[in-house]
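Two folds, back to back.
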Amino acid sequence: MNSPAAQVVRLLTVNGETLAVAESLTGGLVAAEITTVPGASKAFRGSVTAYATELKHQLLGVDATLLAQRGAVDPQVAAQMAVGVRKALGADWGIATTGVAGPEPQDGKPVGTVFVAVDGPFAGASGAFGGGKVTALRLNGDRAEIRMESVRSVLALLLQELAGVHTGNERAQDTERNGGF
């Protein structure tokens, strides 16, 4: 079994790290995917499915003004959800999904607009919160396809960050991209 979820569980377990998940449009699918992996309990702390916008603030600490001004489908909201679930559940890594699965647009955002985020103990950040990454997605398909692609995308983003942190490549790539600074 070499699914992205299995790879995530293996990497986290090998490194003695834990994961927490914050979900909106995916409604628990990310947590379900992770918990299909035997031994997931060694690394998976739990999840918060904050489907209602106010729960993103109440349970995950997403800024209420941000939610009021931009709505729940926003890259900063995704980033704050990842930070919030990491803090709330005491995990080394936090990942989050927020977006519009359809059938109707939400907060002025078209169906297929999705943001996935990861927050973790990034190299050089000494475990600090809020140094995460967000990926913006424009997905096609029906509601089920958008939700499943969101699951795949957030796990892929986490795998990319886990690989970067644990191989030391993230800092080198950042230096190269930024002209040596």
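---
second:
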Amino acid sequence: MKNMEKYKMGEKVLMKGNEALAEGAVRAGCRFFAGYPITPQNEIPEYLSWRIFEVGGTFIQSESEIAAINMIFGVAACGVRGMTSSSGCGISLKQEGISYIASAELPFFYANIIRGGPGLGNIAPAQSDYFQATRGGGHGDYRVIVLAPNSVTEMGNFPKLAYDLADKYRNPCMVLADGLLGQMMEPMEFNFDWVDPDKLPPKDYIVTGCKGRPRRIINTLHMIPSILEKHNWHLYEKYQRIEENEVRFEGCNLEDAEIVIVAYGTSARISTEAVIKGRKKGIKVGLFRPITLWPFPKKAINELADRVKKLLVVEMNMGQMVEDVEIAVSGKSAIHFLGRPGGSLPTGDEVLDKVEEILSKPASPERERGK
């Protein structure tokens, strides 16, 4: 395979977020991509349309999103690290196949670079697909692991984490980003060595021909209710293990905070500016950033609410993650919300103004909707 190691680990490179994610996937062992164009994620398939051939892989621009996800089903069943990507409505079309793959317990990685919605919406950055991502997205009782980057460096490094988690739990794993993270450029570096897919641990469930061994069957159809119920309990127990072991988050200035902003992805970047400016003004404001949106860091937020009685959830939607924060807090703290839907971005000053407004009022358990 020629041109395998394009960038050395730790080397600073100026890259666009979508291209970093695509290069990170190749670096992590992706050898098959199938997808269909949609803005603002088009740089991912464009980059892979030439890059994946340099490492001996296969690129297919499929005739539809539905075709793409079923191709991924096939390569996952054969043990290949495959990938697809899309945005909003394209991910919606893939949901039936994702449900099949989750039921079949096959690992794969995919990315949603969110655009404004609902419907065709626009091509501006948004966080309106949070429900779609964290509730499975399709039919049936299933979950996918959801990673939310907030930088180009994380866009490049999360594919390796996604593939590893997918293999560990035999489950789909996705990166949920937005059009701003996909299009922006900044210095980034890869924090992992190149993965040789031929040297990954063997998988004893894949279908690659059964000469000399018992046949294997990958199936999602369980017509007998008792058998399907047993399968669902098996999946549920796996999801419980994921929730116990794979929660990821980070905090900033939480030790003495009187109010904490809860935000992920681009909203967390914007909120960081509010924290810096607020601290300069003597305001004790902190930031809690979920990195795994599922499993959601419920326990950590619940413990935070024991000592911080005012939380501000900032999202680029009408209020989705705020519901998970409410569940986690269990009434211990007042929860406020600032949302900008339809591809509009909040500013750091806007977030800080909301913080100051909240601090000027007595604590209340009622949730406030932003305008």
